[in-house]
Design brief:
77 residues, 10% strand, mainly alpha
C-alpha cells in the first residue's frame, strides 16, 4: 500500500509504533504507555497519513510535519 505510491521503508518505521499502540488498545482496552509516548505515536501516525494522502493526490514539494515544536518539513519528489 505505501510502497506503491513511493513511500520509503525508513518512513514506515514509524508504522510499527502505531500498530503496537493500536494492538494495546484493542486487546486490553487501554494503553499503559506514558502520555509522551502516546503523543509521539500520534504525531508519527498523523505524518504518515499526511504524506500518504499527499502522494496519492500527486503532490510534489515540501509540507510541514506535525510535531510539538512546529518545525519540520518533508520534501516529496
Amino acid at each position: 500500500m505505501f510502497s506503491c505510491i513511493g513511500m520509503k521503508d525508513e518512513t514506515l518505521s514509524d508504522l510499527k509504533s502505531v500498530v503496537n499502540l493500536r494492538n494495546d488498545i484493542i486487546h486490553t482496552a487501554l494503553s499503559e504507555r506514558s502520555y509522551d509516548e502516546q503523543y509521539k505515536t500520534y504525531t508519527d501516525c498523523r505524518n504518515l497519513i499526511a504524506e500518504y494522502l499527499l502522494r496519492l493526490l500527486g503532490f510534489k514539494g515540501s509540507f510541514n510535519l506535525f510535531n510539538e515544536s512546529g518545525i519540520g518539513k518533508k520534501i516529496i519528489e
